[in-house]
Amino acid sequence: MRERALTRLVVVLALAAAASACSRGGEGGPQQSPSAPAGADDLCGADDLQWLVGRLRTMAPVTADMSRRRITCTTCPAPAEYDPARVNVLYDLKSGVVKEVRCG
């Protein structure tokens, strides 16, 4: 009887660990978009906007072509396609502070 209870406990713990690993992304940390291919240049101009890191997202300058800029929170769902000509400005949802600026 004790052996059966121990087996059930092991199974329950294994399932809980698997479910926990699958559910990360909300508050477990930022969702990562595909990164730039190795050796990719700054085709989008992200280097020019690095000054935004640590500042409020509302300070991001408006561009004429917003299809080349994505401003989203680090935990918000976003399409995963990589566009080397698009600037991604990622900010903290609660504070509105920019955490990262990168191409993609």
Quick overview:
By secondary structure, this protein is an alpha+beta fold. It has one helix at 2-22, and strands at 69-73, 87-91, 98-103. The termini are far apart.
Structure commentary:
The chain is α+β, with helices and mostly antiparallel strands. Helices cover about 20% and strands about 15% of the residues. Strands 1-2-3 form a 3-stranded mixed beta sheet, with no helix packed on it. It is globular, with a radius of gyration of 20 Å. The protein starts with a helix and ends with a strand.
How are the secondary structure elements laid out?
Layout: H1 2-22, E1 69-73, E2 87-91, E3 98-103
Q: Order of strands across the widest beta sheet?
A: 1-2-3
Report the sheet-strand fraction.
15-25%
Shape: globular
Percent of residues in helices: 10-25%
- Averaged pLDDT: 75
Order of helices and strands: HEEE
Supply the key terms:
alpha+beta
